[in-house]
Amino acid sequence: MARYDCGYGAWIPGPVLDDPGLRPRSLILYARIARRANRVGFCYATNATLIEDMIETMDHANGVGLAACQVGILKRIVVIDIGEGPIVLINPVILKTSGEQTGEEGCLSLPGKAGVVTRPNYVKVRALDENMVERELEGTELLARAFQHENDHLDGILYIDKATETWEYEE
User: Fold this and answer.
1) Sheet of strand 165-168: strand arrangement
2) What is the pTM of this model?
3) Which residues of 130-160 are buried (b: 16+ CB within 10 A; e: fewer)?
């Protein structure tokens, strides 16, 4: 298996989904990062470009969310869009959860696979937005699931680590 440098001295095992339509960012398949992604201290122009690229990549792949580590960048940046416009979370921290929901999850880094995961139904998260303004956001159902799923990526956790059942399907 190949290794791909994701910056900051960390390596992510490959392979990479190398689809020219996903340029400028390719998705890392089966990404498992052994350590937490690095906090973002300042919003440099490179971070703004990364965020734009992540939103484009997520949209092109018909995803609901994408973490920077899924495109090979070990930064605590997440983009989410459940159909109401993109949400950017920099250095997200989950403040509160409640309730419970059980449902199917998939992941752009694990194409052709799905699983059943139980997660809280309500999540309150604090993060910086793309302008480095601190915000608190709340979500239920799909948005709550997306907050948790993408935050897990930043900690090196995949949904299959929490799934009670998994299966494969043809795309």
Assistant:
1) 101-105, 113-119, 165-168
2) 0.82
3) beeeeeebebeeebbbbbbbbbbbbebbbbb
Residue count (the chain):
171
| Residue that has been written with the tokens 């403040």 in this structure | 95
Q: Can you give the pLDDT of all 171 residues of the chain as single tens digits? A: 233 333 333 333 334 444 444 444 666 665 455 557 888 887 677 788 999 999 999 999 999 999 999 888 889 999 999 999 999 999 999 999 999 999 999 999 888 999 999 999 999 999 999 988 999 999 999 999 999 999 999 998 999 999 999 999 887
State both tokens at 51.
Answer: 């965020």
Contact 81, 58 (CB under 8 A): yes
| Cα-trace Rg, the chain | 15
- Tell me which residues are annotated as active site: 150
